[in-house]
Write a structure and sequence with these properties.
The chain is mostly beta strands and 154 residues long. The protein has one helix and eleven strands, in the order H-E-E-E-E-E-E-E-E-E-E-E. Strand 8 and strand 9 form a beta hairpin.
Length: 154
């Protein structure tokens, strides 16, 4: 019995020592855009005795286009939803389950859209009607937050 136990323990230790010591390395980006995509919906009117709703993570695809203005998209009415974007697609990335993402990009300006119901979503503009512009500087990560709010009311 001792001999069997001895062989079992020897095999156990041999197998443990042969295990791979590789660990999953996380990719570190030093330049590009990092951020989070969240969603809020429903009635957002302030009410006495009720805390405002907290945004929820919104897993989706994030698209990075060359700077895009309102004349370079096909918009659905006056909504922040678009069916087509007519500028150059530079990169795409997927968010994780918490809506977080990071993408490596060269220095420059990018219009950022997210996928919502098979459409593109972006809800902010600058004074020249450029849509969701983000500037990436050399050796820096631009940090952004995208709030998908097309189903929110007030």
């Amino acid at each position: 019995m001792r001999w069997i136990l001895f062989l079992f323990m020897c095999n156990f230790f041999i197998l443990q020592s042969c295990k791979s010591t590789k660990t999953k390395r996380s990719v570190v980006f030093s330049q590009g855009i990092t951020g989070i995509v969240e969603e809020i919906s429903g009635n957002q009117m302030p009410r006495i005795g009720r805390e405002p709703d907290k945004p929820k993570p919104f897993p989706t695809t994030v698209f990075f286009y060359a700077p895009t203005d309102i004349t370079q998209v096909q918009r659905i009415g006056e909504t922040p939803l678009y069916t087509s974007i007519f500028t150059k697609l530079i990169a795409t990335t997927e968010t994780d389950s918490l809506g977080k993402f990071t993408v490596s990009l060269p220095p420059g300006r990018y219009s950022v859209f997210v996928q919502v119901e098979k459409k593109f979503f972006a809800n902010n503009f600058d004074i020249r009607n450029n849509i969701s512009l983000v500037t990436v500087e050399e050796n820096k990560l631009a940090d952004i937050k995208i709030l998908v709010n097309h189903k929110a009311t007030n």
